[in-house]
């Protein structure tokens, strides 16, 4: 599968994912840490239940000036990758 980025065709790269920590709060929310390709670590991701099913929310900080939340890290995930990560989180919680 190819994707077009910055006017160039690039091949879709396969990534490996590892959930290094997962915690379910008493209100049902889930927070987890993710390692991508053994080199990139992301802390404080969350799984939320949306209208179209579960989705991953990346860490964000609230701007005190305008009250908006801004992501400070993210990665573009396709549906299959999102499902894989959510499955890994569920396994870690079990």
Strand order of the largest sheet: 3-4-5-6
Q: What's the total number of strands?
A: 8
Q: How many domains make up the coordinates?
A: 1
Residue-averaged pLDDT? 88
Number of helices: 1
List the helices and strands and how they pair.
Elements: E1 2-5, E2 8-11, E3 17-24, E4 30-36, E5 40-50, E6 53-57, E7 60-62, E8 69-71, H1 79-93
Antiparallel strand pairs: 1-2, 3-4, 4-5, 5-6, 7-8
How would you characterize this protein structure?
There is one protein chain. The protein has one helix and eight strands; from the N terminus they run ββββββββα. The termini are far apart. It has one helix at 79-93, and strands spanning 2-5, 8-11, 17-24, 30-36, 40-50, 53-57, 60-62, 69-71. It is globular and about 45 Å long. It has 94 residues and is of the alpha+beta class. β1 (2-5) and β2 form a beta hairpin. Helix content is 16%, strand content 48%. The strands form three sheets. Strands 3-4-5-6 form a four-stranded antiparallel sheet, with helices on one face. Strands 1-2 form a two-stranded antiparallel ribbon. Strands 7-8 form a two-stranded antiparallel sheet. It has a single domain, classed as 2-Layer Sandwich (Arylsulfatase, C-terminal domain). The longest helix is centred in the last third of the chain and has 15 residues, at 79-93. The model has no long low-confidence stretch (mean pLDDT 88).
């Amino acid at each position: 599968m190819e994707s077009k980025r910055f006017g160039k065709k690039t091949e879709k790269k396969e990534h490996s994912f590892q959930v290094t920590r997962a915690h379910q709060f008493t209100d049902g929310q889930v927070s987890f840490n993710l390692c991508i390709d053994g080199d990139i670590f992301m802390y404080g991701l969350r799984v939320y239940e949306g209208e179209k099913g579960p989705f991953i929310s990346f860490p964000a900080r609230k701007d005190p000036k305008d009250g908006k939340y801004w992501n400070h890290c993210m990665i573009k995930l396709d549906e299959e990758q999102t499902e894989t990560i959510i499955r890994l989180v569920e396994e870690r919680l079990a």
